[in-house]
Every structure is written in structure tokens, then in C-alpha cells.
Amino acid sequence: MGGEIAQPIAGRKKIPGLSGLVLLAPTPPTPLILSNDMQAQQISAYDSAEAAEFVVMNVLTSSPVFDEDVQNLVTDMLKGNEWAKRGWPAYAMGEDILEQAKGIGVPVLVIAGEKDRVEVLKRVEREVVDNIGESKMVVLEGKGHLLPVEATEEVAKHIEGLVDRLNV
Length: 168
Prior knowledge:
Order of helices and strands: HEHHHHHEHEHH
Helix content: 40-55%
Strand order of the largest sheet: 1-2-3
Number of domains: 2
CATH class of the largest domain: Alpha Beta
Organism: Cudoniella acicularis
CATH superfamily of the largest domain: Alpha/Beta hydrolase fold, catalytic domain
Number of helices: 9
Protein name: AB hydrolase-1 domain-containing protein
Distance between the termini: 26 Å
Structural class: mainly alpha
InterPro entries: AB_hydrolase_fold (IPR029058)
């Protein structure tokens, strides 16, 4: 969901000093329209600890994660604001922010998980990378959607590489 926020903000070019952008497993800037059944499933995905754990283990991650991380994620998911939980599948997924994303004028590093079931590689490449002028995509092998949890050190290494390249 961070990509859904970062892309239009960066594309408006109103952040003084912005010299680069990193998008982790980003939501494409184009609308994703879900069927009513899929939308209902998304809304109820975090209704219980069991449901949230299932989502973490079978949808959001594709490589082994520590039990403590899973429990922390589940706890956070259950604490989420009800309107926020409903807002993403009911409204935000359908937003079209493509024109703002096309306006991004700084180097963009897109880091994607090879086995991401939420934002699949082909869609990220076609709808994110291909629509942002100066962008590069790095694919983390065997990883899913929760890259900061699944590949903390790899993500940090790639971000450091961009920072070094930009001399920031």
C-alpha cells in the first residue's frame, strides 16, 4: 500500500530535495477491480488471528519467516482500524494514479519478490516499471510480498546501493 501513496506524491514533484525513490513490492498505479466475492474475502482476511496467520503464511510470504515475526504481523493486523481494513479493497485498489506515477522525475528502484502472490512480477513490470521513466527493477529470488520481513538484509543492500549511486 505504500506504493499507492508514494507514487502520486513523488509524481507531483513537490518534495524539495527528492533525489530518488524506492518502491518495495509496489501496488501498480492502475486500478485493480476485484469481484464482489474477492472483495469480501479481502475485507474479512483479518477478522481473526487464524485468518490473519493464514494470510501471512500463504499469501503475503513465500519464504520461511520467524514465528515471532508472524505473531507480530498477526497482532498488528488485528489492531488495524476497521475503516482502513475495508478502505483498501473497497476503494483504494480501484484508484487510477497512473498519470501521477508517470510524472515521477527521479530515479526509481523497484524491489519485487519473485514469488509475490499479491503484486505479481509481470504486473509490477508492466504497470509500474514500464510507466516510470527512470526506473530499474530488482527481483529477490524466492521471496514474496513482505520483503522487509522476508529479505531485510537484501532490501537494505539495494537501498544502500541506490543511495550510493545518487551520492545522497
